[in-house]
Specification:
heterodimer, A: Rossmann fold, 42% helix, B: mainly alpha
């Protein structure tokens, strides 16, 4: 740039500040995420079950089993000590379990959604029950994991004491669901036939292109404001690491999820089949807390709120958060509000 | 207060975008940051090495010999991908131009800074993009790009061609039909069991010989189904009890 005007001078200065911030960011190295202490309490085919360490006797505390999405890693729930939904749950007195999905290998291309829901989630639920000597669990499903949790709760209602869904799509074809519009005409048979497991980077590119100006440009220029704030730069680096670390998706399960739900909206039409059984959401009668973001661009609030009319639970509550799909976990306001609200709701019913 | 855009705005913005892209790409190798996506990333995302696929290819070339020697299937796939990419780029260009012309910073100083212009540009651009992105026509552009990319990869031997029969939609329909049949069989078995149970006390009160008991059982009228699934009541759903949506407590 040639700084011929004050305007050009400012643009050039911004470019220089950005270089400085990025150099500092680079010097930080690869930051750690998901560091809250935990132990593996079950290793299964395609997953492992984690239990978080707590100073108090865990079996005296209400338990919550977190079912995360297959897309991205669950560490956005444990980004850093000051932005950790999991740590907040522990501080508030919960016994926290988490299913960590393994990356699919070439031999997992034909893995079906039934395998995730009717085997992996089920085995995890049974292990939690064994460890705590209880007959049912409190499930907390996140995004796609929330849809899995809904399916599991409908198929095995006796195994679920309370259900919490967070930013969970139920009606996949609401008018404001942009992602749904984008994948409506994708030929999934050819896609999965070509790639086998669907590359995570491909999905990431799709998610980022939902907000190209903000995610592709502005958030990087805004780094100039963080040059003097190493902690904020470290948080930025952790978020970038989490965003970039997107696992591949088992081909058949991906086709079932996108085809059955985004393309045909089978869940709310009562046509979604898992493990040779139709998922009937009306069979969900346990207490349900539905948490969603009012400005969520990936799972619009309307997609989540559709749950209200689909289940039979007499104890159904909603918690609307004025934030987006990720902010609901990592923003300071979310950290202060969401885990506390969920814990209060859970303790009143456990 | 002047809010008019300086004449060099567009070129400065373009240069800044290039700086952001170049800088963040450098960081991505050391700090795990994600590079700013471009359309070329669609190819890179799935192959890791897309260059040989399109190397030397120019689908818009006026020279009929420019792409001579390319296999017809590859040529068709390349053309399709080129057209899909071009259509999406056109849409992006329209949005980008509209964002530039509509960006008007809200400055209280009377002299909007470059940063204010930039913030307004991204805000306007995101709004215009969101409006366009939610349309079916834009969704078709994205779907077509993905489908064309798959075609391109298949044409170049990346991945395997899927079997033409038994598509996912058909599999789902079959699975649903099987599940419904299974459910009906289970309901029927439950009804039979219920019928047998409900006729048992009568037998106790009036003991009969085995042959007589069998006849009585066969004549017994089955109880009406308790749920709406299957039989004559299929499809008639009971209205769920009215529930008020409450906030969490």
């Amino acid at each position: 740039m040639s700084p011929s005007t004050p305007f050009a001078e400012e643009a050039q200065k911004l470019g220089q500040q950005l270089s400085l911030s990025l150099q500092q960011l680079s010097a930080l190295g690869v930051p750690s995420i998901g560091t809250t202490e935990h132990e593996t309490v079950l290793r299964g085919d395609g997953f492992r079950l984690l239990r978080y360490v707590s100073k108090a006797t865990r079996n005296d505390r209400p338990a919550v089993l977190i079912v995360y999405a297959l897309v991205n890693r669950p560490w956005v729930l444990d980004l850093e000590p000051e932005r950790s939904t999991i740590q907040r749950f522990l501080d508030l007195g919960l016994d926290v379990f988490l299913i960590e999905w393994a990356d699919p290998t070439v031999s997992d291309t034909d893995r079906e959604l039934s395998d995730y829901i009717s085997r992996m989630v089920k085995e995890s639920v049974e292990r939690v029950c064994d460890l705590r000597q209880e007959s049912a669990v409190n499930l907390l499903g996140v995004c796609q994991g929330g849809t899995f949790s809904l399916c599991f709760s409908a198929l095995y209602p006796d195994k679920v004491k309370n259900l919490i869904t967070m930013v969970t799509p139920v009606d996949f074809q609401t008018a404001d669901n942009v992602l749904s519009q984008w994948v409506r005409h994708v030929d999934l048979d050819r896609l999965v036939g070509c790639y086998g497991n669907v590359p995570g980077a491909m999905l990431n590119a799709l998610f980022i292109s939902l907000q190209p100006f903000r995610l592709g440009s502005k958030k990087y220029l805004d780094l100039v404001d963080l040059a003097e704030h190493p902690e904020a730069l470290a948080t930025f680096a952790r978020m970038e690491r989490w965003i970039a670390d997107s696992p591949a998706q088992a081909g058949r399960a991906f086709a079932q999820f996108i085809g059955g739900l985004y393309q045909r909206n089978a869940l709310i039409k009562g046509k979604f089949v898992i493990d040779e059984r139709i998922v009937d959401l009306k069979k969900i009668k346990c207490p349900v807390l539905n948490v969603y973001g009012l400005t969520d661009h990936l799972v619009p609030a309307s997609a989540s709120r559709a749950l209200a009319d689909q289940i039979s639970s007499p104890d159904y509550r909603e918690l609307a958060f004025d934030g987006g799909h990720i902010g609901i976990y990592v923003s300071r306001r979310a950290q202060a509000e969401i885990p506390a609200a969920i814990t209060t709701w859970l303790k009143a019913r456990d | 207060m002047s809010t008019s855009l300086p004449p060099e705005w567009a070129s400065l913005l373009r240069q800044l975008q290039e700086t952001i892209r170049a800088q963040s790409l450098g960081v991505s190798r050391t700090a795990g940051a994600l590079p700013i996506p471009s359309l070329a990333d669609w190819l890179a995302a799935t192959t890791g090495n897309p260059e040989p696929v399109t190397e030397g290819f120019n689908p818009w070339s006026d020279d009929p010999g420019a792409n001579a020697g390319i296999d017809p299937d590859k040529w068709r796939a390349l053309s399709r991908y080129g057209q899909a990419l071009s259509a999406l780029q056109s849409a992006w260009l329209e949005i980008g131009l509209a964002a530039l012309s509509e960006s008007q910073p809200n400055s209280t100083t009377g002299h909007p800074t470059f940063r204010e212009h930039y913030d307004q540009w991204t805000q306007t651009g995101e709004r215009l993009f969101a409006e366009r992105a939610a349309t079916d026509s834009y969704g078709q552009l994205i779907s077509e790009l993905i489908n064309a990319q798959v075609d391109l990869h298949l044409a170049y031997g990346i991945g395997e061609a899927p079997p033409p029969e038994d598509p996912q939609e058909l599999k789902e329909a079959l699975a649903e039909a099987r599940a419904r049949e299974k459910q009906l069989r289970e309901d029927l078995a439950a009804l039979k069991a219920q019928t047998a149970t409900s006729s048992a006390p009568v037998k106790k009160r009036s003991p009969q010989k085995p042959a007589q008991r069998a006849r009585s059982s066969a004549k017994a009228k089955p109880p009406a189904p308790k749920n709406a699934r299957g039989g004559a009541t299929a499809g008639k759903k009971k209205t769920a009890p009215a529930r008020k949506k409450k906030t969490a407590s």
